[in-house]
Design brief:
about 250 residues, alpha/beta, binds 1,3-dihydroxyacetonephosphate, isomerase, TIM_sf, cytoplasm, EC 5.3.1.1
């Protein structure tokens, strides 16, 4: 079953009010390429301004806290993100798993909170270079899915992003065969975990997606979109990736 592709940008800790000007051309490209869904996840402080500037564009967050409210200084709840206008939240990005020591259980709780608040959750998984070299990539990702995927959401509210850690920000990507193998394994695992709902979960590829490789990567079986870091910061780079997604649809 071919799922509608989602091309999502993760701005990480980049951007500014001035940089939101990029959204104008990105929103126009989203409209012109209506066969794909497009989203941008800017830093928390820019979410409301991004929604105000381009209400037609899906705006998401890069994290949320698992709790509804309380004594968690510096954290943001899913309900706060919804109030700001976010309709999806990335959770469990490898940078947060590494820098903030987030565990699978915490990622699962965050995804559950995001979905309960009415957002879609993009749950990130991916192996390190050492794990791939040791032949453990698929096993590591299956384990992350086991621990991080909420069992009570619907397939539509859940998105998985496969982001090999060694491909993020490096200009290196797995071979098309390796991407196909991993995405097939993720699909099988999702079906085992979620039954029929597993077939509805979009599986994004992330890690050095650029204008010149987007169409090829997005054409691989069970690649239902892309999660784009650096190349999502400018319309000049992100629009051709949106077009690549449409061409692969
Ligand atoms: O981490 C990523 C998206 O979440 C990928 O980042 P790059 O596209 O910059 O490699």
């Amino acid at each position: 079953m071919a799922l509608r592709k989602l091309v999502a940008g993760n701005w990480k800790m980049n951007g500014s009010i001035a940089a939101l000007a990029e959204l104008d051309a990105i929103a126009a490209a989203a409209k012109a390429n209506g066969t794909v869904d497009v989203a941008i996840c800017p830093p928390f402080t820019l979410i409301a301004s991004a929604v105000a500037r381009t209400p037609e564009l899906t705006i998401g967050a890069q994290d949320c806290h698992a709790a509804a409210k309380g004594a968690h200084t510096g954290c943001i709840s899913a309900a706060m993100l919804v109030e700001a206008g976010a309709t999806l939240a990335i959770v469990g990005h490898s940078e947060r798993r590494a820098d903030q020591h987030e565990t699978d259980a915490e990622v699962q709780a965050k995804a559950t909170a995001a979905i309960a608040a009415g957002m879609r959750a993009i749950v990130c998984v991916g192996e390190t270079e050492g794990e791939r070299d040791a032949g453990r990539a698929v096993g590591v990702v299956e384990g992350q899915l086991d621990g991080s995927i909420p069992r009570d959401g619907t397939g539509v509210t859940l998105v998985v992003a496969y982001e090999p850690v060694w491909a993020i920000g490096t200009g290196r990507t797995p071979s098309v065969d390796d991407v196909a193998e991993m995405h097939a394994a993720i699909r099988a695992k999702l079906s085992a975990l979620l039954g029929a709902e597993g077939a509805k979960v979009r599986i994004l590829y992330g890690g050095s997606v650029k204008p010149d490789n987007a169409k090829e990567l997005l054409s691989v079986a069970d690649v239902d979109g892309a999660l784009v870091g650096g190349a999502s910061l400018t319309a000049a780079q992100f629009v051709p990736i949106i077009e690549g997604g449409a061409a692969a649809s």
